[in-house]
Amino acid sequence: MNVSVSTLSLTVADVEASRDFFTTHLGYRVAMADDGFASLTRDDAAVDIVLLRQGIEVLPAEQRDQRASGLIVAFTVTDLAAEEERLRSGGAPITMPLREEPWGERLFQTTDPNGVVIQLVEWVQASPDA
């Protein structure tokens, strides 16, 4: 198997709200879209995002009423503090403030209008005592 692109498909109530959040705050652009559907991409992203409207008929019947919840979309970035400031000043809600874990992970979270949690992460050298 040769994986050429990775895509995360999220079922949400309001495709346009998530699309606008990802394009405005996270630098994604719309690759294609239709009623109840948007495919988002970034040249430097390890994963594309597909947004599907909850209830859309392209989904199998048992999946139509599900929606993205209980998951975290995580992106490893550089200059995490600058990204937090950029998102905060751009009006994105910071739903978990910047913090550093003892194992060397720095992170914060923002949440899109559909409740999709986006976590930005930067790895730092853990202290030898950790």
From TrEMBL:
Keyword list, A-Z: Dioxygenase, Lyase, Oxidoreductase
PROSITE patterns in alphabetical order: VOC (PS51819)
GO-annotated molecular function: dioxygenase activity; lyase activity
The keyword Kinase is annotated on this UniProt entry: no
Residue ranges occupied by any VOC domain in the UniProt entry: 4-123
Name of the protein this chain belongs to: Catechol 2,3-dioxygenase-like lactoylglutathione lyase family enzyme
